[in-house]
């Protein structure tokens, strides 16, 4: 499968660039919120595939597949400071900060590739669910060990905390 992004920071984050296409913009010729959300999802899935997680569309670890567990987005926060226009190239970086036993997070930074300017940030919270029973599950130590090797050791947030 062709993916144009790559792992960076020793495989702890993933970057991919995209050209904003004509059918991804609204009447004002800038990307729609739907386009931005789709790009974030694409980069997140490509990151999971790049580190060897399942290709079934759910980014599952071997233990998760064995136990019929999947990740489900429970919350998402997107801030766009400047919407990219038709023809602009954006670079999106994503990573999964270390989290607790109830779920995990995925963060993104969106940059204008031409200027390097940060034009958006996003964060999401994910919970684990049994795909057969549809009940939420705690993240077991075994599953945590499988995905924590791909999380940055030093805390890194898309939205830096203010003093």
UniProtKB/TrEMBL annotation:
<dbReference type="GO" id="GO:0009507">
    <property type="term" value="C:chloroplast"/>
</dbReference>
<feature type="domain" description="Acyl-ACP thioesterase N-terminal hotdog">
    <location>
        <begin position="11"/>
        <end position="147"/>
    </location>
</feature>
<keyword id="KW-0276">Fatty acid metabolism</keyword>
<keyword id="KW-0150">Chloroplast</keyword>
<keyword id="KW-0443">Lipid metabolism</keyword>
<keyword id="KW-0275">Fatty acid biosynthesis</keyword>
<keyword id="KW-0444">Lipid biosynthesis</keyword>
<keyword id="KW-0934">Plastid</keyword>
<keyword id="KW-0809">Transit peptide</keyword>
<dbReference type="InterPro" id="IPR002864">
    <property type="entry name" value="Acyl-ACP_thioesterase_NHD"/>
</dbReference>
<dbReference type="Pfam" id="PF01643">
    <property type="entry name" value="Acyl-ACP_TE"/>
</dbReference>
<keyword id="KW-0378">Hydrolase</keyword>
<dbReference type="GO" id="GO:0016297">
    <property type="term" value="F:fatty acyl-[ACP] hydrolase activity"/>
</dbReference>
<dbReference type="InterPro" id="IPR029069">
    <property type="entry name" value="HotDog_dom_sf"/>
</dbReference>
<dbReference type="GO" id="GO:0000036">
    <property type="term" value="F:acyl carrier activity"/>
</dbReference>
<comment type="function">
    <text>Plays an essential role in chain termination during de novo fatty acid synthesis.</text>
</comment>
<dbReference type="InterPro" id="IPR045023">
    <property type="entry name" value="FATA/B"/>
</dbReference>
<protein>
    <recommendedName>
        <fullName>Acyl-[acyl-carrier-protein] hydrolase</fullName>
        <ecNumber>3.1.2.-</ecNumber>
    </recommendedName>
</protein>
<comment type="similarity">
    <text>Belongs to the acyl-ACP thioesterase family.</text>
</comment>
